[in-house]
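Box S2. Input/output pair 1.
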Amino acid sequence: MANYTCILYQVENGICTITLNRPDSYNSFNNEMSYELIDALKTAEKDELTRVVILAATGKAFCSGQDLKDRTPGKEIDFRESLEKRYNPIIKGIRNLSKPVICKLQGVAAGAGCSLALACDLIIASKEATLVEVFVNIGLVLDSGSSYFLPRLVGYHKAFEWSTLGTKITAEEAHNVGIINKITNPEDLDALVEEYALKYAVAPTKAIALIKKMLNKGMNEDLETMLEYEKHCQVIAGASSDFKEGTSAFLEKRKPTFLGK
């Protein structure tokens, strides 16, 4: 396993925790952290022991977006290269990961950091957490998937307001509109995230991977297409060991022991 300098990587009890670890810069993205996160997501995908991923951060902030100080003096930022090689692979890595990804949101998630949180499958947040699409404040537009996720989550008008005014969204407001799944007191955040992660660590992982693919596809397809895709996925799920275990456990009136296969 790679030795990372900007993130922490740990696997225990089927739970992979990837932690952004640049607290002095509010976990803003420099080149190194971007590429390390891409690699960590690939590692989690390949690891058969990993059943669920927690995306977390150290310090007060979750992620403040791009580190504006991380640039070569006198050289213009190559936005195309940055998005193609760094940010887009991160977002795709989360959405294509065949395991659920839980965002543990303990502070501000701004710019690309906000996009990072939105890309996760579940967001569990401290009541003190905030989200902000800060791009417009420096004359930029949404990137890293925010223009895809945000209007689907909250509708066009609210997405337009938040994106064009750079509005700071509180955890409570984000919870009320369905962006955040659960909010809790800061001191209870670790325990609540672990509670969810442990549920997924013993869940039928293959079925959840298929459900994740179906929901992603379902946001862009018509009913007829999805009915066919559901049929395709159900055939795969029905041939899994977890289905056999689930039905046996039901008939035997016991709790199933899913292996994620």
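Box S3. Input/output pair 2.
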Amino acid sequence: MLKPQINSDSFTGLLKTVRTQSVAECRFPQSSDINEIIAVYPQVSCVSCEISSGRAAYSGKIVLTLVYTDEEGKLCRMQKGAEFSHYADDECFAPAQTGVCGLTCEKTGVKRDGSSFVVTAIVTADISVYARAERAYLTAAEGAHLNIKSVPLCSAVTFGGESEVEDDFDADSVVDILIPAAKAVVLDARCGTGEVEVSGEIYLSLFAMRQQTPVCLERVVPFKSVIPCEQSSAGIAAKATAEITDLNVTATVNEERGKCEINFVCNLSVCGSFTAVREENVALDAFSCDNEVALTFASESAESCVDIKVYTERVTGIAACKAKLGYDCKFFAAALPEAECAYNGDTGAVEGAVNATLVYEQGGEIKGTQISLPFACVLGGVAGEGERVMVTVAASGVSVRLRAEGEAEVEANLKISATVTREQSCTYISDISEGGEKQKESCALSVFIPEAGDGLWEISKKLNRDPEGVLACNPELTFPLSGKERILVFRGNQT
């Protein structure tokens, strides 16, 4: 009579990752003194993400800053914000699930609409949906032989929180800040006891005025966020993202010192996940010498963070440019730098482009144009076989020079954060049931010729004998077998 022992518990797993895009727009009333739009900067952040039956709905906010020249050629700015919402449908989504959403702005555009300017932004949402599930696994069975092995049983743990980052510094002769832009890059995420510590750097870029000249000021601000998490255990690597939800930069001119005192404050939304792993002895296979058995198998997998590796690169090359640049152009600044990229697992390289707004003077007028420098950086030793890489890149230190008529040579610094993950998977018996009685062998002695690579478990199952009995009859065997052995099977009186 078969008497199985089956354990059960619940766990959290990554159900699905989806990507969707939406369009957000702001309408700016057209001022009569707008001469030319120089730069547009979007700051986007997620407000909420809710999972319902068949749908993942998210909302966000976007703040668009527009810099333009007036009729006198002076640089001015306007700023406006908007809220937006969108969704992604999938039949596997359910209300009890948890969604983690990250937003990025892919592209902006400006067009005239009557007496107004309409600025549109294409916003991409990456949504990871986590769900609770039940697992059952066989650990023992009276009346059957089990192949018991220790396997990793995984459960995903999500975390999130907010923190404030502040910095003060001086800048020479700055009279106004037109656009503050910032990019947060996570450089390390590590679990402690009851908390997750996430650290990184914020790359701050200020499109500013120094007296009557537009300039780009840059600064790297370190940050550290400690997120409470009851399920966190010390030493586990985590994957995390940091999103700037609010950004405020104030400048106070100190005429006595001839400097501008700048105060930078931003709110960070930090979220991520890690994999809690525990080793359990479970049955991977089973058979009975007396009866047939029906086995039900279950499989599960989880993506675990291995490490976060950091690289610094300098890239250079000829950039694509929308405007026609000539020797009559005077370059002021490459403002609002950003990088878009992806990791190529075949080449081991990060491939993408550095984008910036080139502010220059031509024919006595200040103008602005978008420049784009494609790049490919090979990351040495970033990942091993079977590992995946997700990258975040910040661009800074962009410089532009005219190499030839119509050819702008661009150099830029890249800070690359590479999160390395590895999939852990296992298959085990979730249920076992007894079938019909097996036919007994009538001969007292059999000789069995094994296959190369067979282990003790495979031989025992083929012979329908318990492993201890096989070893007792053939103590000279060394596993795995070469295929040249001869295995003797003795059977007692079966009457």
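Caption for Box S3: The chain has two helices and 20 strands. The first helix runs from residue 456 to 463.
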